[in-house]
Amino acid sequence: MESEQITNPGAYFDSYEDLKVHELMLTDGPRQNAYHNAIVGNRDLFAGKTVLDVGAGTGILSIFCAQAGARKVYAVEASNLARLAREVIKENNFQDVIDVSECRVEDFRLPNEEERVDIIVSEWMGFFLLHEGMLDSVLVARDRFLKPNGLMFPDTATIYLAPCSVPSRFDRWNSVSGVSMQCFGRALRHQGSDKPEVLTVAPEHLLHEGHVVTWLDLKEVTTEELDAFEAKEVLVGQRTGKLQGFCIWFDCTFPVGEQGGRIPNDIVLSTNPVAPETHWKQTVIPLPEGACEDLEQRDPIAFELKMTRNKDTNRRYDLQLTLLDAEKEEHSLPCECQMTKCILMKAHLEKMQVDG
Amino acid sequence: MESEQITNPGAYFDSYEDLKVHELMLTDGPRQNAYHNAIVGNRDLFAGKTVLDVGAGTGILSIFCAQAGARKVYAVEASNLARLAREVIKENNFQDVIDVSECRVEDFRLPNEEERVDIIVSEWMGFFLLHEGMLDSVLVARDRFLKPNGLMFPDTATIYLAPCSVPSRFDRWNSVSGVSMQCFGRALRHQGSDKPEVLTVAPEHLLHEGHVVTWLDLKEVTTEELDAFEAKEVLVGQRTGKLQGFCIWFDCTFPVGEQGGRIPNDIVLSTNPVAPETHWKQTVIPLPEGACEDLEQRDPIAFELKMTRNKDTNRRYDLQLTLLDAEKEEHSLPCECQMTKCILMKAHLEKMQVDG
């Protein structure tokens, strides 16, 4: 029905699923609050400034910027959601402040080719920060369009890893209404190949507070630096429990202006299991069944994590986790673990300090 | 890796999503409890009996039947989950009781062609009971394989409808972190075409306790009787609130044996909004924005619901809801609504009773 399509903004969309994804994001409280606090709570950073919103989606971040006093916002959205964004912007009466461009940011040009923007805002994060995210596009935009002293929202991102228990993939299947379904659990662990999976990890199932895999300064990092990350470490279990996998999460921080009184000093969007749940949840790499073990407090856990860009699909990342022999790996000093050499070394170092 | 595939049951599956659907069902407490209570709690009905499990999935209902003392269980599953079901059955040591057949029940034959089973168990229910369910296949199995006095688990099913508020599709979008996003809400209401959607309706958003659309006796109902259902009614709002849509749900009951002491008298699997949430949630037909209204207590709501089999896809059902003019429709007598004729009629009937 032609007439209906004209009055129905939703009629633009090929995929209802796209809208559901945006519903999920818009109803993600920690995500919304972090961006709202970082932008609307920082009027002094935005007032009179020009902003580029990379992957604007429904336009909500652009509207935050307009509410915070931005003089001009360029909202760039590649999908046909751009048309809905225009309607949302009009609904909020910011059509004179916000210009929506329906194109990839790689194809976007500012009206004045010489112009540079003061601020780039973007919610580009994917699973475990980078997987299916769009940081590459944000960096292209930064290098082309941001003033040398311009601001990035967010401006840092950190990836963490911790050993954990994964009862939803192991213990739960020991008895389902009195039926043993361990082979179902085995199949669930990504068809027995122990692939990473997006899951919610309860804080009590973390066996460690989290090791920093990488910290990114988003003003400086290059696309090439995103090709591969490696972490090789001996961690010390901080809690007893079943070691059944590794949990990966991230957090992002935002620039903070002078309005310290109105907002927390550090604005952090955290997907840590101890923080309120977000739609990113956590990413879990389950261990093969034979590698699971009961972990005593202060047991060492030696591993190597490789996170590499997928060769075929640039926006995807492959995770490879290898358990190592803690006896053979070098421990950081002093090490809190229970291995004899570390206990002796720690005692020695303490003695030296006392003696010193 | 050839060797890995042999030891990994999950390696059979084309679709990881299939496993996730079964995970959802196996962790659906009300579903699991209803079937567990109905089967394992009814040993006197199952001991020594032969059972056919239609659409056995992971095999858990077949195992319940074996636990309840069934002599022989025929588990029929068309997908390659049948192979995982065999492993689950072996894990529970019931391989001598349960025979798994990887085929459609329409192609299934009992080992002895003359044989009939005592009981059919199946979890065939789809959204709003019938949509994408497999009751047709269960009825084929019943007509071919069930003894005349055999039992069906479940044995009745009822579909309900109630007017309701739908804040997640209307009010929520009035302000998202201070941004008006009503046009997003409009798009979400199934791309503006107000199509039915699977949603969770909070009990407090129901404006009526539920009108019975249809009640099915699963021992008797025929496939043809499932082709279309109609309900034309004037309901009386039982609560004030915003009329924004209609909510549909179902419940199923199971036969009850002599072991009354061990289980509740009526075993019901209910997807009523007032019952604990299930993976079926509820199905909501949002109203067009212009048809939404504030409902006073005892306001009449006149509607017609048509539920008809989709012409192209037999297992799908189309819902069509039409709001009618309560002034013009016939009300049931006595009617509790606020319309003058009903108030007068009710007063008259009450007077007649007193006088009589």
TrEMBL record, chains A, B:
Domain Methyltransferase: 51-150
GO cellular component, one term: nucleus
Domain Protein arginine N-methyltransferase: 155-322
EC id: 2.1.1.319
Gene Ontology MF annotations: histone methyltransferase activity; protein-arginine omega-N asymmetric methyltransferase activity; protein-arginine omega-N monomethyltransferase activity
EC main group: transferase
Any Pfam family the entry gives: PRMT_C
One example of a Gene Ontology biological process annotation: methylation
Protein name: type I protein arginine methyltransferase
Organism whose genome encodes this protein: Anopheles darlingi
Species lineage: Eukaryota, Metazoa, Ecdysozoa, Arthropoda, Hexapoda
